[in-house]
Amino acid sequence: MVDQFNNLTQEEVDLMFQVPMLVAILIAGADNNIDKTEMKEAITLSKIKQQKARKELLDYYKEVGQDFEDKLKVLIQKYPIDAEVRNPEIIAQLTQLNEIFPKLDKNFAVDFYASIKDMARKIAESSGGVLGYMSIGYEESKLISLEMIKDPSK
Q1: Is the C or the N end of the chain the one with fewer CB within 10 Å?
Q2: Terminus-to-terminus CA distance in the chain, angstroms?
Q3: CB neighbours of 89 closer than 8 A, spacing ≥ 6?
Q4: What is the three-class DSSP state of 29?
Q5: Residue among 19, 12, 36 nearest 104 (CA)
Q6: Stretch among 24-33, 80-89, 121-130 having the lowest mean pLDDT
Q7: Tens of pLDDT, residues 45-79
Q8: Which parts of the chain fold into alpha helices (H)?
Q9: Which of these, 151, 61, 148, lies nearest to 106 by C-alpha position?
Q10: Helix, strand or coil for residue 133?
Q11: CB proximity list for 64: less than 8 A, separation 6 or greater
Q12: 138 with 30: CB under 8 angstroms?
């Protein structure tokens, strides 16, 4: 258990542990096609963040990273295939972070927010563009800023 989550309900804790996967599905599936490159990037990021995340987030990412690929595949199956239906459901879930962040240590919330925004950007950049590098598609660009989540530093 992540110490930061002591003041959260079980449902809030469960959501917090799903956030990286929800962000991956939202961004990767923004164009209605969750491709292997984007999923591979999400899995790679989950491994990197277990080692190189901000200090406050290491325990969190170590727990999230356990069986990340399997959990991601299961979660994808729970959502509709069509992005027009799936994305609003995921956005509604991510919006709940606005109620959770005030219950967390501010530094943790700020670092967490920055971390998931970074993850969104890297997943979006992993597919498309010249030879598949450094380009963000139109649909992804509309979601990459994760505007449904309020910046906890403000």
Answers
A1: C
A2: 27
A3: 79, 80
A4: coil
A5: 12
A6: 121-130
A7: 999 999 998 889 999 999 999 999 999 999 999 99
A8: 10-28, 36-52, 58-65, 68-78, 83-95, 97-100, 106-125, 138-143
A9: 151
A10: strand
A11: 17, 20, 46, 49
A12: no
Residue 15 sits at the vertex; the CA angle it makes with 98 and 83, to the nearest 5 degrees, is 85
Question: Residue 130 has which token pair?
Answer: 């010249």
Amino acid at 80: P
Q: How many angstroms separate the CA atoms of 27 and 145, rounded?
A: 10
Asked if residues 30 and 137 have their Cβ atoms less than 8 Å apart, the reply is yes
> How is residue 62 written in tokens?
């170590």
Q: Which amino acid is at 10?
A: Q
Reading phi first (left if > 0) and then psi (alpha if -120 to 50, else beta), residue 46 is in alpha
Q: Would you list the domain boundaries of the chain?
A: 30-143
Nearest one of 126, 120, 109, 18 to 63, comparing CA atoms: 18
Report how far residue 24's alpha carbon sits from residue 27's, in angstroms, rounded to the nearest whole number: 5
Residue owning tokens 């959990």 = 71
**Structure-token match 């969190």, residue found:** 60
pLDDT tens digits, 12-49: 999 999 999 999 999 999 888 888 888 999 999 999 99
